[in-house]
């Protein structure tokens, strides 16, 4: 309350002349532009039309995992036993001595000889973790079940990671590449005059997938070998270049190339290549990473994937093109693929049902089949209809390949994790002339424990969990499959 003497002569509801003048100016624009009145879109009192649930725009590609039979060990083992490994005995020959069958009258032939081997494949556990914060669960009510999404996404991520393990899991160390050689040219690049040293390392699937680039921060990269014996080469600049070659390494998915600074300094990472050859035209942009000091390609937690099993010595058909391209045979075939198929037939009497390739090789195969010069058997036919005249659907893709030796049609499929420069043919089904083979298929996944989502102890206000499984890839006969590698693009 104001004292009465302060209110004397004043009407509490009256306005001073100054206030009235300011109001008049505001209405007439005297104070500037008039302000918009009322509620409009700028007030932001609008709805939010949110679609539920969230859109999952990520690929979940695991084609080999989806294709292979998954059989519990208790179904395959005697008496339904589990254990830590699947064991089996295999007989690969029943007349190993090649006895001739004819005998003299009243005589008997010698006993046939068997070729038998004991085999074992140890189970390995794999999985991925995630966690869901309590507030995420509460705030997502009515929109999306955060815990269910986490379980689904972790399962899908585990399946994608398992696909890479099935393709390229690697138990045994590869060893550094050998036979490194360099040829110098005075043109074709921008190398200055000097003596350059180079080293090459090999990468497993893990090394390639995790983008290993040698030693960084004093730590060797996993999935990468140590460096090969270095080569020292003199280059005449300023437009020089180096062409490197080395012996192909079985089990390698890629190679890292390291080069010194041209003055005998420390090695630095230069590039990753997918064939056993590289061309160095410049050392600009090299990374400070140096070659591994130790071979880190052996992973005891892995089981061997398809590529390591097929490419192992004395295992499947293996051919390194050593930076040569595939070759068209002029009769709608590829020379190198036919050579592999013939070898599988001649030596094993089998043929693959599917060839897995990188996107690069699917293009190269199509080019070889359609650009075989004057001997190409491909022609374009336009249908004799009004709508078809003048319309041409462009593009061609090789989707199947005829095995000239078995008569089977082989599917050609692009694999998301197959590196450039490599293709793989898998034999899943044995032909009828392998009676009583007692295997479900030539390649299976044997499971000790199928996928399960495990919740772990809470240490804060979140729910930690993980999706885990235990299994092993079983190739009963790696010799029935094939790999062609170090294919040059073109």
Give an overview of the whole structure.
- By secondary structure, this protein is of the alpha+beta class.
- The chain has two domains: 60-91 and 115-171 and 300-377 and 396-490, Major capsid protein gp5 (Major capsid protein gp5 fold, 2-Layer Sandwich), CATH 3.30.2400; 181-280, no CATH class.
- The chain contains ten helices and 19 strands.
- The protein has helices at 4-7, 17-28, 63-67, 73-76, 134-139, 146-168, 205-209, 306-311, 335-348, 359-370, and strands at 70-72, 85-93, 115-122, 124-133, 181-185, 194-203, 231-235, 241-245, 254-259, 268-273, 277-280, 317-324, 354-357, 400-402, 409-414, 422-426, 443-455, 462-475, 482-487.
- A six-stranded mixed β-sheet has the order 12-19-16-13-15-14. Strands 1-17-18-4 form a four-stranded mixed β-sheet. It has a four-stranded antiparallel β-sheet with strand order 7-6-9-10.
- Strand 17 and strand 18 form a beta hairpin.
- The radius of gyration is 34 Å and the shape is globular.
- The model is unreliable at 1-10 (pLDDT under 50).
Q: In a nutshell, what does this entry contain?
A:
The protein contains ten helices and 19 strands.
Per CATH, the superfamily of the largest domain is Major capsid protein gp5
The level 1 CATH classification of the largest domain is Alpha Beta
Please report the number of helical segments: 10
Structural classification = alpha+beta
**How confident is the prediction overall: mean pLDDT?**
90
Tally of strands: 19
The assigned CATH architecture of the largest domain is 2-Layer Sandwich
CATH topology of the largest domain: Major capsid protein gp5 fold
Approximate helicity band: 10-25%
């Amino acid at each position: 309350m104001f004292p009465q003497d302060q209110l004397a002569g004043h009407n509490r509801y009256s306005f001073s002349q100054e206030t009235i003048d300011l109001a008049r100016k505001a209405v007439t624009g005297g104070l500037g532009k008039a302000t918009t009145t009322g509620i409009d879109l700028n007030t932001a009192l609008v709805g939010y039309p949110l679609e539920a649930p969230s859109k999952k725009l990520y690929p979940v590609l695991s084609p080999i995992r989806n294709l292979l039979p998954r059989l519990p060990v208790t179904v395959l083992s005697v008496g339904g036993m589990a254990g830590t490994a699947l064991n089996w005995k295999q007989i690969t020959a029943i007349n190993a001595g090649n006895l001739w069958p004819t005998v003299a009258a009243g005589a008997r032939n010698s006993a046939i000889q068997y070729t038998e081997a004991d085999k074992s494949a140890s189970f390995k556990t794999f999985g991925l973790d995630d966690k869901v914060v309590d507030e995420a669960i509460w705030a997502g009510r009515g929109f999306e079940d955060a815990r269910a999404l986490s379980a689904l996404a972790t399962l899908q991520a585990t399946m994608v990671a398992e696909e890479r393990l099935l393709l390229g899991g690697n138990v045994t160390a590869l060893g550094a590449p050998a036979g490194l050689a360099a040829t110098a040219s005075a043109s074709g690049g921008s190398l200055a005059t000097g003596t350059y040293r180079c080293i090459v390392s090999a990468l497993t699937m893990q090394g390639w997938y995790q983008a290993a680039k040698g030693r960084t921060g004093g730590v060797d990269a996993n999935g990468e070998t140590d460096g090969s014996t270095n080569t020292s080469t003199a280059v005449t600049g300023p437009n020089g270049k180096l062409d490197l070659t080395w012996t192909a390494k079985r089990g390698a998915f890629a190679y890292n190339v390291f080069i010194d600074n041209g003055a005998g300094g420390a090695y630095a990472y230069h590039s990753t290549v997918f064939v056993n050859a590289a061309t160095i035209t410049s050392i600009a942009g090299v990374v400070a990473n140096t070659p591994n000091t130790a071979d880190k390609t052996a992973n005891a937690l892995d089981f061997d994937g398809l590529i390591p099993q097929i490419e192992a010595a004395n295992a499947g058909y293996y051919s390194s093109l050593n930076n040569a391209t595939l070759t068209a045979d002029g009769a709608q075939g590829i020379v190198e693929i036919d050579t592999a198929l013939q070898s599988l037939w001649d030596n094993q009497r089998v043929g693959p049902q599917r060839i897995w390739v990188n996107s690069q090789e699917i293009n190269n195969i199509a080019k070889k089949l359609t650009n075989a010069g004057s001997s190409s058997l491909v022609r374009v036919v336009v249908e004799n209809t009004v709508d078809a005249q003048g319309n041409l659907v462009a593009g061609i893709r090789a989707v199947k390949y005829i095995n000239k030796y078995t008569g089977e049609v082989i599917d050609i499929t692009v694999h998301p994790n197959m590196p450039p420069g490599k293709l793989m043919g898998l034999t899943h089904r044995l032909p009828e002339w392998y009676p009583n083979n007692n295997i479900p298929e030539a390649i299976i996944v044997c499971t000790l424990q199928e996928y399960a989502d495990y919740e772990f102890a809470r240490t804060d206000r979140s729910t930690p969990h993980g999706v885990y499984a235990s299994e092993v890839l079983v190739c009963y006969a790696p010799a029935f499959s094939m790999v062609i590698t170090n294919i040059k693009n073109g």
